[in-house]
Amino acid sequence: MTSGHSGNMFTVLILCTVFLPSVLHASYFGLNNENNDQCFCKLKGSIDDCSCNVDTVDYFNNKKIYPRLQSLLVRDYFRFYKINLKQVCPFWADDSKCVMRHCSVQPCQEEDIPDGLKGDAFRHTHFNESPVDKYKANVQFNDCMRSAKDHNKELGYLNTTISSENYKDFELWKQYDDAQDNFCVEESSPGEYVDLLLNPERYTGYKGPSAHRIWHSVYMENCFRPENSPGFYIQSSKINGMCLEKRVFYRVISGLHASINIHLCAKYLLSSKDNPMLHGGQWGHKLEEFQRRFSPDTTGGEGPNWLKNLYFIYLLELRALVKAAPYLEREEYYTGSKVQDKDTRAAINDILGVVKSFPEHFNESVMFAGGAEAQLLKEQFRQHFRNISRIMDCVGCDKCKLWGKLQIQGLGTALKILFSGKFDRWEPTLHNFSRRQFYLERSEIVALINGFGRLSESIYELDRFRDLMR
Q: Which of 142, 258, 364, 411 could bridge across to 306 with cysteines, CB 3.0–4.6 Å?
């Protein structure tokens, strides 16, 4: 080969090295396609009130997070969720039950539930410590009891016994204290286990006045609203007129709503013909429904902004996972199967490692900064969200209620992690046996990971809808 040819080859190699990655990046996000639907024309650039952009989240989620979550959420610890679907609606008469067979939810039979999930775990006793820490706590307790027995009688006897009645009082105090940090209202009864894999979130036909009343109550009665904003949704041009905390509240609700709508469009009932292989119906992507829900022409120009709010809530929950990572990495994820529990711990730690590698997260430290006025706003923020968690009991479709309550609890758990303040000073070891650690119930962990999984799938499905539009 001559020197001229070598020079040309070297030039080609340099050009490929410099420009090929950007070409692949553009191809992945569809940036070179002039026929992209207008639903996505504004879905680019920076994400409001965050420091990263849409393309960065797309690549990070679709290539790194989504595949890992899909393999994690099929594990027993995360697929079985305890819920009360019979809770009475506290706001209006429940007169709109869905009668379609796709709306029903079948609870688990006793033999289907993993042994480690049966019964109620006494999480308040040792506050979710590892077996080593539990042992340490018992040692400290026993040492304390021994010191009481060895007490010098000449100096007087110290009665260290605590009656069962007092323990019950302590438990009530703990429940009250914990409720002050919760963004969701606790169930009135434990409910039943549901297998989430057998009851996937998808379009059931639940719509009309009942469904509209749910979202109307959420947006009109429980979202912070700027003055002169009478419409169902808040126009994006008016959102910036609100303070950061109120903007965040609206964007997380709007983003969750957008995510749910994407799920329904991606698993739309295409055919209701009875077919044993299709479990009574065929579900798939409904492009026309997606365009109806998000096109600027049918949403007053707001549809693309709603999609952008999906990215906002994704980053907020991503930040909650990072903040809770030291705690979640110590969770046992106990189901009774040593092999599966070990694999689950390895899988969750792998995901948390990837999550922590993301360079730009939502910054919660700038919120509720100040004196008494900021604390009052924080309490209003919490009470508004608690009301929304109550509204989920008014959903007339059991399958919609199941996934609505799960995703609201997941978001509420993320808000609890970010804004309760306890994870700011959470300590991994117990220095005093009587000291109360901050902990998460199993249902909160399951809802947190599954809720984030729903957001992850929504962003992944957006890429599928881009392809369909081409």
A: 258
The answer to whether 353 and 329 are in contact (CB under 8 A) is: no
pLDDT tens per residue, range 229-256: 777 788 888 888 899 999 999 999 999 9
Round to the nearest angstrom and report the end-to-end CA distance of the chain.
Answer: 44
Give the whole-angstrom CA distance, residue 108 versus residue 191: 11
**Can you tell me which residue has the tokens 């808040």?**
234
Q: What is the reported pTM? A: 0.80
Q: How many CB atoms lie within 10 A of CB 123?
A: 12
Closest to 455 measured CA to CA, from 120, 35, 62: 62
CA nearest neighbour of 236 among 216, 258, 221: 258
Tell me the C-alpha distance between 470 and 40, whole Å: 12
pLDDT, tens digit, for every residue of 292-342? 999 999 999 999 999 999 999 999 999 999 999 999 999 999 999 999 999
* Alpha helix stretches (DSSP H) within 217-337: 222, 236-239, 244-266, 287-294, 303-328
- Block residue for tokens 């105090």: 173
Residue type, 50: C
Strand partners for 80: 195
The answer to whether 289 and 231 are in contact (CB under 8 A) is no
How many CB atoms are located within 10 Å of the residue 337 CB? 16
CA pseudo-torsion sign 373, 378, 379, 380? positive
d(CA 456, CA 436): 34
3-state secondary structure of 107: strand
User: What is the rounded CA–CA span in Å between residue 203 and residue 397?
Assistant: 11
> Tens of pLDDT along 144-195?
444 444 444 444 544 545 565 655 554 554 554 555 678 888 877 778 999 9
DSSP 401-415: HHHHHHHHHHHHHHH
Cα–Cα distance measured from residue 189 to residue 181, given in angstroms and rounded to the nearest whole number: 20
User: What is the Cα Rg of the chain in Å?
Assistant: 25
Closest by Cα among 367, 370, 329 to 347? 329
Q: CA 253 to CA 250: how far, in whole Å?
A: 5
Residue 341, H or E segment: helix 338-357
Determine contact, residues 53/46, Cβ cutoff 8 Å: yes
Per DSSP, which regions of 286-331 are E strands? none
